[in-house]
Amino acid sequence: MTIIDGKLTAQQLRAEIAAEVAEMVAAGKAAPHLVAILVGNDGASQTYVANKEKMCGECGFRSTVLRLPAETTEEELLARVEELNNDPEVDGFIVQLPLPKHIDEQRVIEAISPRKDVDGFTPINVGAMVLGLECFVPATPAGILELLKRYNVPTSGKKCAVIGRSNIVGRPMSILLSQKGWDATVTLCHSRTANLAEVVREADIVVAALGIPGFVKGDMVKEGATVIDVGITRVAADNARGWRVVGDVDYDEVAPKCEYITPVPGGVGPMTIISLMKNTLIAAKRRK
Ligand code: GUN
Predict the structure, then answer these.
(1) Ligand 1 center to 121 CA (angstroms)
(2) Mean pLDDT, all residues of the chain
(3) Of the chain's two ends, which shows fewer C-beta atoms within 10 Å, N or C?
(4) Pairwise pLDDT comparison (43 vs 27), residue with the higher score
């Protein structure tokens, strides 16, 4: 059993990105600039954005966080998005999700210029991804693919079960793994899937992205499988913070059966942030 070390892999990628940024700057170009819009006071979102800001610093990027009050109207937010679309000093930006209930998330996403959509959430980028065209691949699936590549996990001809059909992780993951180059045979499982445990038990690669702690049990995984745990649910814990993060996989039961497994924390999480940095670097390189 090999534990896929997302933290270490992300550090390697960070060094590669920082080296490219140093070259850009030495050549007289501006460092990549990522902006995050954060609306309201959601605790998890604040942590994510703070982590992104820290990682920008470590990669040598410029970073700006626009903190807007929870009462911000949809029109006000759309106006900020339009400003960033037109700001030549900004290479890429993200609108941290979830947004407050009174704001139509999809309308905001659709207002983002596809050229600056480093999350890869706009319909143009999703469409390009589906067609296998140049696009910004959403950060979590991109990070998972990078882990599979760097650990030489075979995917061609393999059966893959993706659990969870979110726009951010499950659905793009299922599309990407089925594409040429990855060549997996993918089943996208969700809350209405019949005999889900049986489907998962047949899979060579399991991607658990449904957001239910410990959902994947030992008896749902076949011997020698690769298991990728995307879960990051906060649960109460007896520590200084009062919480800890748990995955969608029952690690103690599942790990002994695996050829490869990602831990939580330290698996997919660090790869997501670094993949966003990579997308931002790509956006900066396309800058006129
Ligand atoms: N909320 C949870 N994950 C993400 C993400 O990858 N991007 C954005 N913008 N919001 C999120």
Answers:
(1) 9
(2) 97
(3) C
(4) 27
Report the predicted TM-score, pTM, of the whole model to 2 decimal places: 0.97
Whether 63 has a pLDDT exceeding 80, the answer reads yes
pLDDT at 288 over 90: no
Kindly report the protein residue whose alpha carbon is nearest to atom 3 of ligand 1: 97
| Atom 9 of ligand 1, nearest CA residue | 96
Give dist(CA 21, CA 18) in Å, integer: 5
By annotation, the residues acting in catalysis are 52, 96, 119
Task: With CA atoms as reference, report the closest residue to 151 among 266, 272, 3, 32.
Answer: 3
248 lines ligand 1 (CB under 6 A): no
Which residue, 205, 220, 206, 165, is CA-closest to 188? 165
Map 250-276 to HEC letters: CHHHHHHHEEEECCCCCCHHHHHHHHH
Instruction: Identify any residues that bridge with 261 across adjacent strands, giving them in sequence order.
Output: 3, 227
33-39 vs 2-3, strand pairing mode:
unpaired
Cα 119 to averaged position of ligand 1 atoms, centre (Å): 7
CA of 257 to the centre of ligand 1 (A): 31
Q: How far apart are CA 120 and CA 180, in angstroms?
A: 20
97 lines ligand 1 (CB under 6 A): yes
Q: What confidence category does residue 287 fall into, taking pLDDT thresholds of 50, 70 and 90?
A: confident
Q: At what angle do helices 139-150 and 6-26 cross, to 10 degrees?
A: 110
How do residues 204-230 score in pLDDT, each as one tens digit? 999 999 999 999 999 999 999 999 999
Q: Is 95 in the pocket of ligand 1 (CB under 6 A)?
A: yes
